[in-house]
Amino acid sequence: MIKKIDYSKLYQSEGTKLLYNNSLPGILITFIASTVLAFTFVDRNDFQAKTTWWLVMTLILAIRTIDSRMWTKSQTEGNPKTWLLRFSCGCLLSAVMWSVYAVVFYPTFSIEELSTTNVILAAMAGGASSLLSASLLLAALYNIIILMPMSILLMMQPEQYKFNLGSLGICFTVIMIISSARSANYIKEAILLRYRNKKLVSRMEETIRIRTEEVYEISNKDALTGLYNRTAFLSAVVRVEQDFKQHHIEGFSIFFIDLDGFKNINDTLGHNAGDSVLVSISDRLKSCNAADTLMCRWGGDEFILLVKESRHQAISALAQQITNTLSLPIDVGGQTITLNATIGIAICPEHGTSMTRLIQLADIAMYSQKAKYPERVAFYNLDLEHNLLRKIMLNEALKGALERQEFRLVYQPIVDSAGQIVSFEALMRWRYQDQEISPVEFIPLMEQSGRIVEVGIWVLEEACKTLAKMRQCNADICMCVNISLIQFYDKGFVNHVKRVIEQYAIPGHLLHLEVTESIFRSDQMQINQKVSQLQQCGVKLSIDDFGTGYSSLSVIQNMNIDYIKIDRSFIQHIEQKGLSIVQAVMNMSKSLNFMVIAEGVETYKQRQILEQCGIPYMQGYYFSRPMEQSEAWNYLTAASSEIQY
């Protein structure tokens, strides 16, 4: 008995769903048919009556439409029996209205209107047998109400054809009821079978889900963040590769994310704080990405995402959203921590189709970007990989370059306005495996590895040794040596400078140390202290590449800079906007009491303009290219002989 009651409720609930799901097409068809019938066969005598009938029918259909929408929004609420009753009332009212039309307007029917009405009623009855088969009682009542009144009325007429039509309508009604009964039985069996299968599958799925989750959590998830671990991620991405190969998706992207400065958190606040930060970062990654994005903690503070998107614009927008979200402050035990991230991106199929290769390329893009501008996003390109491989090769080669005596210094003269040599700039060169490596390449590598301090000591000693020799020819000649900011920060730098000028008996004012404008971004108190100690020894300080970086006139004044070297980019455009810069620097030099050197002079015209501006010192290919030590000695000797002569 309990099972029968349960099945009855099941049939009623599922049947109500079928009825409401099929209601809107039936309502629409009813509205169209009623409109056509009411306004096709209308004359002055019955216009008002038919219009009134049509308005009532439309009102009933509107109410049924609202009721259908209400059921859609709240189908999980309320009693199915109540909803079935509401639907049945609306449906049967529509059937009554059809019968009213047939009976009330029958006396005015023409043969055409009679035929059309019979066809429409038969069509409505036939459609109802299918649409309303979820409720046998409703389907039967609908067919009886819509067909029987008209059929009986026709059978009562004296004309034989009308009697035949009426008899046919009664037969059709019986057939439709039988058809509805068969459809209703079929639907009940389908509902019951679906219910049993659903229950069976649900139990199986629940059991499997519980067991799978237990195994999955142990073997596939990162214990700290809950993201995929590396092994699970590589297994999961195989399915994505297959989807791409089978053309189910157009492509995908790999995001390689590295947190900037995370090591400092572990070093200063401890690993527990670092773990809390990683959990917060993983939660934020989840909030930024779609459910089908594969997320992995690759190791340490590195994360990998597989995003099923290959359009650059969408990928860039997502990467920007991720960096913005990850950069928000994190509270760890009352301590506010702010981290940023650098993201490398590789796209399938643009950059490749192998998952292993794409991860490698995204890694390359990330590290290449991190070396230039941390906290940004970089898409992989072939040049990045070539550059990275070359950097790795050069970095390894630099480890023993000094011991192998691969470094040397070349010297470029600096002349005064009369063209006389006043100093040389020592420039570092590296010859590796019969190839000249540009300082633009190897000096940043030495700065990143810290080797610049050791090599910088060698450069300073070598330049001062050469200066001591040149003084035999010209006692007033000066030597300019470029100093890295890392080297400048070294604790023993000032003492080493003092030792070298004492060792080679060089007057301090003949040694000029050149630093770039980046020195102004550093700790000014420490920088000023070291500059003061150097200037007490007579050493001069020059600012190289002036105008291309960060400059502060107040800092220049406070540091008592001796020389400013105008960057070559302004000299190259001196006949255009560069002239204004040169003139401005000259005006500043008079008020701030420093000397000006123009570097990168390559033409006579440039020299002429610089002389007109009053630039006292110049340097560039117009006067001489950088020369080997022996060539520089001969160049200086020849110049000194001309002066003596």
TrEMBL record:
The answer to whether UniProt assigns keyword Transmembrane to this entry is: yes
Pfam families annotated for this entry?
A: EAL (PF00563), GGDEF (PF00990)
Tell me where in this chain the GGDEF domain is found: 250-382
Provide the EAL domain boundaries. Answer: 391-640
Q: Which residues form the signal peptide?
A: none
Which EC number(s) are documented for this chain?
Answer: 2.7.7.65, 3.1.4.52
Task: Please name the InterPro entries in this protein's record.
Answer: Biofilm_reg_signaling, EAL_dom, EAL_sf, GGDEF_dom, Nucleotide_cyclase, Rev_trsase/Diguanyl_cyclase
Matching entries from Gene3D superfamilies are given as: 3.30.70.270, EAL domain
Residue ranges crossing the lipid bilayer per the database entry? 20-41, 53-71, 83-107, 119-142, 163-181
| Keyword Membrane carried by entry | yes
Q: Name one GO molecular function term.
A: cyclic-guanylate-specific phosphodiesterase activity
Its keywords, alphabetically, are: Hydrolase, Membrane, Nucleotidyltransferase, Transferase, Transmembrane, Transmembrane helix
Protein name stated in the entry: Bifunctional diguanylate cyclase/phosphodiesterase
Give the originating organism. Answer: Buttiauxella selenatireducens
